[in-house]
Amino acid sequence: MKKISVYIAFVAATFVVSCGSDYHRNTGRTYAPDMVYSRAVDYYNGTGKIEAQGGAYNKMPAPNTIAREQALPDHIAEADTLLANAHVCNIPLTEKDLGEGKRLFLIYCAICHGEQMDGNGPLYSSGKFAAMPANLKSGEKYLKMTQGRIYHGIVYGKNAMGSYASQLDTKQRWQVVSYIKKVQSENGGEVFTMVKSADMNDTLKSGSTPKVEAMSSAAPIDTKSTEKK
């Protein structure tokens, strides 16, 4: 009984001491310093050693620069729909780019607009959306929509659709737009046109408007790039 009383008194005294003043809030000695103080370098926190050796690591690019082989950014404001409507692709594209555009469309767009572009995507057919997404394939409004306006919608989003500017770079956006317009041309839309590399070279030399090649609606799309290897 005496031992129990001593034990209770010890525990009570320890509790009282631990509730002392804020001036003495100290953890004391560290039993396992390797577990308390990490020796690993935190992600993306440079130590200066790599930079001192002339190396580089993942960090934000320098202001007003672009990555190698990337197109210049588009400086069109979200509210400037007039300029967006007149915006045209200035990147030479090929049939291979149309195939890549289809692949990207299936990844980012088909979830809502459907694989056939009819608006019957998985999110709508499963009942997640009350209203059907845009019918890009044969909807009269979207058949008349310019390439620049579709591109603008990808960058800033429209209605319930969010922006895909961070997922798709400039060329990839035009690849998706070109694929959409190609499919539209086969379903009552205007004849699809695509800038050729030779025409773009002439444009860069002369500063004139690039020529475009009209593609037949029966022209096949190269989808080899979309097949799984």
What are the key terms here?
single chain, 229 residues, mainly alpha, Cytochrome Bc1 Complex, Chain D, domain 2, two-stranded antiparallel sheet, 2 strands, disordered C terminus
Topology of helices and strands:
Layout: H1 2-18, H2 33-36, H3 49-52, H4 81-86, H5 95-108, H6 110-113, H7 122-125, H8 140-143, H9 147-156, H10 170-185, E1 193-195, H11 197-206, E2 212-214
Helix pairs in contact: 5-10, 9-10
What does this structure look like?
With 229 residues, the chain is mostly helical. Helix content is 41%, strand content 3%. The chain contains 11 helices and 2 strands, in the order ααααααααααβαβ. The protein has helices at 2-18, 33-36, 49-52, 81-86, 95-108, 110-113, 122-125, 140-143, 147-156, 170-185, 197-206; strands at 193-195, 212-214. It has a two-stranded antiparallel sheet with strand order 1-2. α5 (95-108) packs across α10 and α9 (147-156) packs across α10. The radius of gyration is 30 Å and the shape is elongated. The termini are far apart.
The fold-level CATH name of one domain is: Cytochrome Bc1 Complex, Chain D, domain 2
CATH top level of one domain is: Mainly Alpha
Estimate the global geometry from the Cα principal axes.
Answer: elongated
The CATH homologous superfamily name of one domain equals: Cytochrome c-like domain
Alpha plus pi helix count: 11
Helix content: 40-55%
**Gyration radius, in Å:** 30 Å
N-to-C order of helices and strands: HHHHHHHHHHEHE
Mean pLDDT: 78
